Predict the 3D structure of the following.
Amino acid sequence: MEKDKKGKVIDMTCLVCPIGCHLKVTVDESGKFVSVTGNGCPRGEAYAKEEITDPKRVLPTSVKIVDGEMPLVSVRTERAIPKRLIFDAIKIIKFTQVNAPVKRGQIIVENILDTGVNIIATRTVKRIKEASNG
Ligand code: SF4
């Protein structure tokens, strides 16, 4: 991070597309967004503003599964949720368990933390009997 007269300049990488532009984001002394350079398109500015005001992330994790061919099923948020809610979301998911079978795309937790975003399975897990029957 560099300091300048207006506040400070924060280096970040835009994660919106695979180009990954290197952004230099200027914020004022109170931490508010002032400007951005280095973005190859307007989406980079929107990303930088969101990162400064309310950053969001997709949460990939796993959930316990009962009678499954494996003990856990991988899950993720359908869309990015506010980063400030990630810890609380992990706590909910940690105490969640589902019964096998689970299908890829199945909703495991609906509308987590009132974000409007579901937690979905990212793979299919058969029941133990189904798995042993082929
Ligand atoms: S600023 Fe635009 S071109 Fe650059 S990584 Fe972000 S979305 Fe892609």
Observations:
- The first helix runs from residue 42 to 53.
- The chain has two domains: 2-53, 60-121.
- Residues 2-53 form a domain with the N-terminal domain of TfIIb fold (CATH 2.20.25).
